[in-house]
Amino acid sequence: MNKSIFVFGRGFLGNYIVQEFRKNGYIVNSSRLKNCSNEDFKIDIRNQNSIFDAIEKTNPSLLINCAAITNLDFLEEHPDIGFEINSEGAKNIAIASKKYDTKLIQISTDGIFDGKKGMYVEEDFTNPINIYGKTKLLAEKYVMQEAKNYLILRTNFIGYDSEGGNLLNWMIKKLSNGEEIIGFSDVFFTPLEISYLSYLIYKLSSINEDLILHLSSDQKISKYDLAILVAKIFNFDKKLIKKGTSTELTLKAPRPKDISLSNIKTQNLLNEKFFSLSDSLQKIKSKFQINNI
């Protein structure tokens, strides 16, 4: 068995995926577009030949594509860049997966839905309302058209990154400094903790069937209620959290209101009960020893 994989896009999620597969005995190579270290390949996924070259040098049996621009407001102003990297880049990787007879896992997003319904199942109608969602939906279509063996995983995740600026980092930093934050009560999602998400991706990698799956928590939660839960778990002052709505902000990219996903299909496939958000946050607290820092 060839236990070699290639991960495109070693950002926050990509790094966790690399760690998870290495922990399970895999040889993992990865790529970055910027800030490339000695152990990474510098690949521009808009360049098909650079993808081919990396695959020929590493001979992986599995490709995982995490590479994407995720800044919604930037993409709204620069759609061409979004379609080049998020869509055409995914197409190039899908073509490579077929050429070299490798399986492809494409990391997608809950943002391919319009947010009018919530608790979306895999078969629901897709209707992205911003450029990011449109680029990721087109990527899904390219993967289905071009890849020989694929798995498309729609997800949303949270996690703590000591050097990052993601949602959970922002909440912890502000609340630990005694600063007020606004949590939107009208925006709902079903995020998974990032290390558990990486574990589930590893578990699903052995499935040899072309599928679209949702990887999400069981609990639909608003950004406001998530902030309240973070305060409870990390012993922060809940009074610092003010309830607000997304209509109070003027943003370049429209945001869908309810992009919660149903994970029933994936749970049945894996025969595994997913961790709750509370358990996941407790795990983060223990791992990073965060307690009113």
Folded structure, characterized:
- The protein is α/β, with parallel strands linked by helices and 293 residues long.
- The chain has ten helices and 13 strands.
- The strands form four sheets. A seven-stranded parallel β-sheet has the order 3-2-1-4-5-6-11, with helices on both faces. A two-stranded parallel sheet has the order 7-10. A two-stranded parallel sheet has the order 8-13.
- Helix 1 (12-23) links the parallel strand 1 (4-8) and strand 2 (27-32).
- The longest helix has 21 residues, at 79-99.
- The chain is globular and about 55 Å long.
Helices and strands in order:
Elements lengths: L3 E5 L3 H12 L3 E6 L7 E3 L5 H11 L3 E4 L6 H6 L1 H21 L3 E7 L21 H16 L3 E6 L1 E2 L8 H10 L4 E4 L3 E2 L2 E2 H11 L6 E5 L5 E2 H12 L6 E4 L19 H7 L6 H12 L5
Parallel strand pairs: 1-2, 1-4, 2-3, 4-5, 5-6, 6-11, 7-10, 8-13
Antiparallel strand pairs: 9-12
